[in-house]
Design a protein that fits this description.
Elements: E1 15-17, E2 25-35, E3 41-51, E4 55-57, H1 59-67, H2 76-91, E5 95-102, E6 111-115
Antiparallel strand pairs: 1-4, 2-3, 3-5, 5-6
């Protein structure tokens, strides 16, 4: 039975304490699956760049969280928005950047990026590394 994104809960996401200090964490989830608008399976890889404050991501809970999307009908854009909002809500990072790269469907693949540092998302654009990033994929 197909679900909507409202069925996905952030309560699964768990934290681990971070005792401070500057750190950049990068995680890759290469087996993202969800149902597209036509209720056909979509496959993607999610790249997470995370600058922690006082907590970090407990990775088993992240895997379980992402698994919730398997039977959810959702667009690429809404998927990225939901994951972004939930991760900000739970982890309160200094910075969160998500990149979703989808597998080709009908000959077209997509790359979507969202970054808490962008002014349009309420950030201060203090990291600025995305400005000079080469778009390689």
């Amino acid at each position: 039975m197909a679900l909507t994104y409202e069925a996905v809960t952030s309560e699964i996401l768990k934290t681990l304490p971070h005792r401070g200090g500057a750190m950049e964490l990068k995680h890759k989830a290469p087996e993202i699956t969800f149902l597209g608008a036509g209720q056909q399976p979509d496959f993607a890889t999610l790249y997470i760049t995370f600058y922690p404050t006082d907590t970090v991501i407990e990775l088993k809970s992240l895997k379980q969280y992402l698994y919730q999307f398997r039977n959810v009908v959702i667009s690429y854009e809404r998927f990225l928005d939901v994951v972004f909002e939930h991760m900000l809500e739970v982890y309160h990072p200094a910075r969160l950047r998500l990149v979703l790269i989808t597998q080709p469907r009908g000959g077209i693949s997509s790359k979507l990026t969202i970054d808490s540092d962008w002014a349009i998302r309420g950030g201060k654009e203090e990291f600025r590394d995305w400005v000079r990033m080469e778009d390689v994929w």
